[in-house]
UniProtKB/TrEMBL annotation:
This is Uncharacterized protein family (UPF0153). The lineage of its organism: Bacteria, Pseudomonadati, Bacteroidota, Flavobacteriia, Flavobacteriales. It holds the Pfam family CxxCxxCC.
Length: 202
C-alpha cells in the first residue's frame, strides 16, 4: 500500500528524531558548538535540499491552513531561506522561524561527519567553527575516527531515500524544495479527505 504524504512526513519526522538523538550523543562527546546567534550558514544563497526533507514543514503548513499562502509567498524569487529571520546582515546572525521543521541538511551541518578518502571521516561544518575552535575541531576530528560517534551524512540521506526514492532523488534550493513539497501535498489532497486535525485557512 502506497503511503500518503502525511504518512511520509511522519516517517521523515521519525528519522529526524533518531538523528536528533545521535546529534545529542555527538555533543555529549565533543566541545564543538555553533556560535550563539550565528546564522551565517543560513545566509548562503541557494542551499540545496530534497523535497522529502521539507515534507514535514509543508505538511505543517497544510495542516495549519497556511499552505496556499505559503505557496504564494514562495513564488517570489529569494535566494535566502524563507524560514530564516535575519537579525544582522553584517554578521549573519538570525534564527530559524520553523526550527522544529528544518530540513535534513540544516540538522546535519555542524554536528555530523562526511566520508573522506581512506575510509576516514571529516567534520561536516563551517570555517567559522574551524577557525574559532581549532583545538576542539582537531580533537573531535581525531575522536570520531577512533570512536565513530558522529552521525554520518551519507547514512542519513540513504535512510531518507528509503522513505520515498522519488522525492529524495533531486536537489533544489531550499525554497524551491519547500514549494515542490507544498505542491505535492496540495495536489494529493485536492480530491482526497485531509488527515485528522486539518485546519482550513481562515
Amino acid at each position: 500500500m502506497r503511503k500518503s504524504p502525511y504518512q511520509k512526513a511522519k516517517a521523515v519526522e521519525k528519522l529526524f528524531s533518531h538523528l536528533d538523538a545521535d546529534i545529542q550523543k555527538f555533543y555529549s562527546k565533543s566541545s564543538m558548538r555553533c556560535l550563539a546567534g550565528c546564522g551565517k550558514c543560513c545566509t548562503k544563497p541557494n542551499i540545496d535540499a530534497t523535497v522529502l526533507e521539507f515534507l514535514p514543514l509543508a505538511m505543517h503548513y497544510y495542516m495549519t491552513g497556511q499552505a496556499e499562502q505559503k505557496l504564494e509567498d514562495l513564488q517570489v524569487k529569494n535566494s535566502l531561506c524563507h524560514n530564516f529571520s535575519l537579525t544582522s546582515e553584517e554578521v549573519g546572525s538570525g534564527f530559524c522561524q520553523n526550527y522544529n521543521y528544518r530540513g535534513l541538511i540544516c540538522r546535519l551541518f555542524g554536528a555530523s561527519a562526511a566520508e573522506a578518502k581512506g575510509n576516514k571521516l571529516k567534520i561536516y561544518t563551517c570555517n567559522i567553527i574551524k577557525e574559532s575552535q581549532p583545538e576542539a575541531f582537531q580533537k573531535t576530528t581525531a575522536e570520531i575516527n577512533e570512536e565513530n560517534f558522529a552521525p554520518v551524512v551519507s547514512h542519513y540521506y540513504r535512510q531518507l531515500a528509503n522513505i520515498d526514492p522519488d522525492l529524495a532523488r533531486n536537489y533544489y534550493p531550499i525554497n524551491e524544495a519547500t514549494k515542490k513539497a507544498l505542491e505535492f501535498i496540495l495536489h494529493y489532497y485536492a480530491y482526497r479527505k485531509p488527515p485528522k486535525g486539518f485546519k482550513k485557512a481562515a
